[in-house]
Every structure is written in structure tokens, then in C-alpha cells.
Automatic annotation (TrEMBL):
Database matches in CDD domains: MPP_PPP_family
Organism classification: Bacteria, Pseudomonadati, Bacteroidota, Cytophagia, Cytophagales
SUPFAM superfamilies: Metallo-dependent phosphatases
Organism: Flammeovirga pectinis
GO cellular component: cytoplasm
Pfam families attached to this UniProt entry: Metallophos
Protein name in UniProt: Serine/threonine protein phosphatase
GO BP annotations listed: RNA decapping
One Gene Ontology term of the molecular function aspect: bis(5'-nucleosyl)-tetraphosphatase (symmetrical) activity
Ranges of residues in domain Calcineurin-like phosphoesterase: 39-204
InterPro entries, A to Z: Ap4A_hydrolase (IPR050126), Calcineurin-like_PHP (IPR004843), Metallo-depent_PP-like (IPR029052)
Length: 257
């Protein structure tokens, strides 16, 4: 079992010529994507595995594509385990997957590290299938969650769950705000002309489409789990090169308001 877990971690975050840490911090990854056929980004899934699968079917994912996930795989929806299983299965089947940490994963990690008891975490979010007992997660999920970085820096994009704290002297060192920030200045000079792609803040689809066309900062979170709210209830995937948007309406049907 231990060898299997170690092998999984190495497979997920192996150091190659394409991938390296920014400075020496494992929370930040600088990535060359020149060998990718397509560069695709999917934001907050929130326990909606059928919706994720519907989107993947549309994308027709190839092993030469680079697929980035922006975090918040768990909570709110009907099946957090199903979402994690889908992502881990893609990795194990040789697809090029780069997952990030969201605030919901981080909260669960903190619960494990500090409280050492997770049954009380977000009651009603169906996390019990992730447990091996009332105090611990199954090894496969715990190792996956603990390895998630906070952001990726590509040649022309920054990818992060929530965004950066542009009020900080160095926005790339405020890791907490990468999971929580919601307010942004109009001037994003700190990004060195790179675009910022994030999720975290449910945003009406028409506003997202406008950002994709016009702005340096793009929020991709169309509130997939909020399927009863007008303008939300879609899971998106953005092709970073063509700016094509794939749209999948919620297929998991749990109403969130």
C-alpha cells in the first residue's frame, strides 16, 4: 500500500523538463506548455461528477492535452467522492492533468491537520465516502489533497483558485488569499502582461464571456452547482489558445440556493 501511494504521488507531481517549482516553494509551479496539443481549464466542480463527465465528453480529451483544474472539487453537490475519483482516474490513465487547491480542499486539510476529526466538517456535504474511519480520510484522497499546489504560472497565464492579493507587496507570496480573495483592482501590472484565470466567485455566464473577450482577468466559475439560479448552473472549460468555451449545464440536479 505504501509503495502504491508513493508511486501515485510521483506520477501526479513528477519533476520533468516541463514542470518546475517557482523558487523552491512546492505551493507554486512554473510550467512550460509548449508540448500541449490544447491547454484547457475547468473551474469549481463542487461535487457534480455527472456534470464533469458531460463536459469531458464534449471536450473529447486527448492525452496530449493539458487539462488544468482550479480547485473546489468537493462540497455543496451530491457526490464529492465521484469528482475526486474522476480526476484521479484521468491521472492514473495517463492524461496530463494539473489540479489546483481550492478553499474547500484547504478547509478539509486544515480539519485533518488541526482537529484530527472530519465528520463535523461541512455537515451534509456527503464526505463520508472519503473516510476510512471517523477521524481520517482514505489514503488515496488524503495524499491527493495534500499535494495540491496553489497556482500555476504558464508562459502567458497565471492559473489560481480565487486570485491574488494585489494589495500585498508580493501577491505571489500571499497563499491564503489565493484561496479566498474576491476583489481585484483594474490595474494588474504585477502579472507581467500575463492573463489571470481563476474560479471561486460564481459569475453569470454572460459576464464571463465578456471577460474572456475583453479583460486580463477571467473568472471561469459559472456556479455549476447552483442549478436553480438564473445565469448560473453551468460548468465551463476554456481553451487558453483559441478562447473557445465549452459549456455544460448541471446534470447532478441537487438544487443549491
Amino acid at each position: 500500500m505504501l509503495n502504491m501511494i508513493i508511486s501515485f504521488i510521483k506520477k501526479l507531481f513528477s519533476t520533468t523538463q516541463q514542470t518546475k517549482q517557482v523558487s523552491s516553494d512546492p505551493r507554486a509551479v512554473k510550467l512550460s506548455t509548449s508540448s500541449a496539443t490544447r491547454r484547457l481549464v475547468i473551474p469549481d466542480i463542487h461535487g457534480c461528477p455527472k456534470t464533469l463527465q458531460g463536459l469531458l465528453n464534449q471536450i473529447d480529451l486527448k492525452k496530449t492535452d493539458y487539462l488544468f483544474f482550479l480547485g473546489d472539487y468537493i462540497d455543496k453537490g451530491v457526490d464529492s467522492k465521484g469528482v475526486l475519483d474522476s480526476i484521479i482516474s484521468l491521472i492514473n490513465n495517463g492524461y496530463t492533468i494539473y489540479p489546483l487547491r481550492g478553499n474547500h480542499e484547504d478547509e478539509l486539510i486544515e480539519t485533518i491537520e488541526i482537529k484530527d476529526k472530519i465528520l463535523s466538517y461541512h455537515a451534509g456535504n456527503n464526505l463520508e465516502p472519503l473516510l476510512k474511519d471517523e477521524y481520517r480520510l482514505l489514503d488515496e484522497y488524503e495524499n491527493f489533497l495534500f499535494q495540491l499546489p496553489y497556482y500555476y504560472e504558464l508562459e502567458d497565464y497565471f492559473l489560481v483558485h480565487a486570485g491574488f492579493n494585489f494589495k500585498a507587496k508580493d501577491p505571489l507570496k500571499d497563499f491564503d488569499e489565493m484561496l479566498w480573495v474576491r476583489n481585484f483592482p483594474k490595474n494588474l501590472d504585477t502579472l507581467k502582461d500575463k492573463k489571470l484565470i481563476h474560479g471561486h466567485t460564481p459569475t453569470p455566464i454572460q459576464d464571463i464571456l465578456k471577460m474572456i473577450k475583453e479583460e486580463q482577468r477571467i473568472c471561469l466559475d459559472a456556479g455549476a452547482v447552483f442549478n436553480t439560479i438564473e445565469g448560473l448552473g453551468e460548468l465551463l472549460c476554456l481553451d487558453l489558445d483559441t478562447l473557445k468555451v465549452y459549456r455544460q449545464h448541471n446534470l447532478d440536479k441537487k438544487a443549491i440556493s
